[in-house]
Amino acid sequence: MLNRRVFNQLILAAGVSMLPAASLLADASTQKPNEQPFKLNYILASAMYGKLPLAEILPEVNKTGAEYIEIWAEQHGNQREQIDEMGAAAFLKLLDEHNVKLGSFTCFKYGIFKMQSEMKLVKQLGGDMVICNTPKPLNGLNETAAVKAFAEELKPHLEVAESLGITIGVENHVGGVISSIESIHLLMDALPSEHLGLAMAPYHLPQEPETLAQLIKDLNTRLVHFQAWEHGDGCMTKLPKEQELLQLPHRGPLDWKPLLSALKEIDYLGRTEIFMHPTPRGVPILDTTAEVTAEINACRKYLDGLL
User: Fold this and answer.
1) Which pLDDT score, from 0 to 100, does residue 4 have?
2) How far is the C-alpha of 149 from the C-alpha of 10, rounded, in Å?
3) At residue 193, what are phi and psi to the nearest 5 degrees?
4) In this structure, how many other beta carbons lie within 10 angstroms of the beta carbon of residue 157?
5) How many Cβ atoms are within 10 Å of 254's Cβ, its own excluded?
6) Is residue 100 pLDDT above 70, yes or no?
7) Do 217 and 260 contact (CB within 8 A), yes or no?
8) How would you write the chain as a 3-class SS string?
9) Bridge partner residues of 102 (DSSP)
10) Burial class of residue 59 (count of CB atoms within 10 Å of its CB; 0-12, 13-18, 19+)
11) What distance in Å separates the CA atoms of residue 62 and residue 221, rounded to the nearest whole number?
């Protein structure tokens, strides 16, 4: 079976050479594909370990099947602040020692309109993305007008991201301008840049597998970061640990098969982050580092098994 990208390349080749596309497809079908089977590209969220030192978290990255780290700031973690304390050079040395790459920063505390300095630091550290949620809609604006106003305000920040080769991942978040599926589509239409896309948080969307899968397919290359995170029993009040963990794939009730099928259909090349929020924020999701890593691996085994 030819995947979407190979098919498109063949159609383009047919148009350039004026050869019948069918004959090209026939020739290609006899070739052995060199592509590896589709798999998820994992990134580890530092906040899953609360506010533990980076020196303790980075050795866990490869153990979770990831090669990238995502750095979280207060209140969810404090690894962003740890980088300031140790300095960029020391952080780069730690990354190198543990064979880890920086993927992205998630820094809600700054706000999306104060991320330009973060973009520059991410670039300096070898990363390629900053992720933030969006502010509340301005009073009196309907959804369409609110997204339009937000997009206009974001344009100069997007220009900086484009100049640096950094991507802005906008997280859909309850209460923000970008929270509904319609608002996501409106934003993507308003800012058609390859340096802006959705950092998709299924937790904050309807827990309907086919709806979530359709959004993935609609976004296609505008899906730039994907959190394997479901709602479960929520994360806003303190719950018994077993209930709190229902935010994780393999524990919660969400059927992940349609979502994974959609990711495979679009040949998703972005990073996938197994994620949840503990209550209170800033603590590890489980008591020990080993337990956190084991739980992430249980989720990964489940997701990979579905693929």
Assistant:
1) 47
2) 40
3) -120, 140
4) 18
5) 22
6) yes
7) no
8) CCCHHHHHHHHHHHHHHCCCHHHHHHHHHCCCCCCCCCCCEEEEEHHHECCCCHHHHHHHHHHHCCCEEEEECCCCCCHHHHHHHHCHHHHHHHHHHCCCEEEEEECCCCCHHHCHHHHHHHHHCCCCEEEECCCCCCCCCCHHHHHHHHHHHHHHHHHHHHHHCCEEEEECCCCCCCCCHHHHHHHHHHCCCCCEEEEECHHHCCCCHHHHHHHHHHHHHHEEEEEECCCCCCCCCCCCHHHHHHHCCCCCCCCCHHHHHHHHHCCCCCEEEECCCCCCCCCECCCCHHHHHHHHHHHHHHHHHHC
9) 69
10) middle
11) 26
| Structure tokens belonging to residue 117 | 């300095």
Q: Is the peptide bond before 280 cis (omega within 30 degrees of 0)?
A: yes
**What's the CA angle centered on 267, arms 262 and 271, to 5 degrees?**
90
Q: Tell me the two tokens of residue 190.
A: 């308003």
C-alpha 260/C-alpha 258 separation (Å) is 6
pLDDT at 34: 64
6, two tokens:
């190979």
Burial of 184 (0-12, 13-18, 19+ CB in 10 A): buried
Q: Nearest CA to 228 among 244, 210, 212?
A: 212
pTM: 0.88
* pLDDT at residue 169 in the model: 98
Q: What are the C-alpha distances in Å from 214 to residues 66, 71, 80?
A: 26, 29, 34
Report d(CA 160, CA 167) in Å as an integer: 10
Report CA 264 to chain centroid distance, whole Å.
Answer: 15
Long-range CB contacts for residues 84-89, cutoff 8 Å, separation at least 24 = 86/54, 88/121, 88/124, 88/125
